[in-house]
Model the fold of this input.
Amino acid sequence: MTTEISTSINIKEPRWDQGTFMGRAKHFFTVTDPRNVLLTNEQLENAHKVISDYRQGVMSPGLTEDELWRAKYIFDSAFHPDTGEKMILIGRMSAQVPMNMTITGCMMTFYKTTPAVVLWQWINQSFNAIVNYTNRSGDAPLSVNQLGTAYVSATTGAVATALGLNALTKHISPLVGRLVPFAAVAAANCINIPLMRQRELKHGIPITDENDNRLGESTTAAKQAISQVVVSRILMASPGMAIPPFLMNTLEKKAFLKVLFTFITLFIQMCCLSFSLVFATPLCCALFPQKSSMSVSRLEPELQEKIRASHPGVERIYFNKGL
Done:
């Protein structure tokens, strides 16, 4: 049942209370819905128009509240919250399930030879680099040189980590070997995300008061934002990459599976991954508020002075942590 449209709906904020984990989970289940990847440019532009018009006080005839919120979540799934730019398709959070299901499934199946490790770790970290850049915080662009340096450093670090771990586990239990891709992904996230967002660590991310008035840029806020994203990404990969190895290690011993084992492994792991990612992606995104905050007293001393001089009543600042 639809409701009449109201002129006082705050579409700058999510539909559900972001102060609770459940509210954030509902929000991210909507934003990361894989079906959003199938939306056409016409649907995206229509949602963009509906939201832009509503913000300016213009409402389409017959628009309902449910339709407004649907347009907002289509808009949020495809357009960057700080820059307003349309995001790269495979970099959107709605593409996480199909992309990660495919890439991670291959990483966990083809992990025994060096060429396979290099190929799939390179593909995975190239994809992660696109996701990290697409979902960065702030509105300042990265130069081509900065982007290239960050990409090469992050990808090289990730591949080296995977090869090093593979070499260490050659004479250990096969089960431990199956866990190498997860360990490599966890370590690589600690390298890739800070490198792809290094500009934020050097120059800070935009911070605002509770009314969205910009107060400056903070590197302290950037460190908190990036650390939260690293934790979320590692936990996001955990169910799909840590559980299937135990299942596959058991199945590998069954004689009737050995002939087509590689293909069966890939199929089973992709099924496990798709199921876990559908839930892990939104739930891990919801661990921390998208609009994070911190006390003014935790900011850089010079920024504290600036804020207290120009906005004496502000005790807490807010920022987009990125995804």
Q: What stands out?
A: The chain is about 60% helix and 5% strand. The longest helix spans residues 144-168. Strands lie at 205-208, 214-218, 291-295, 316-320.
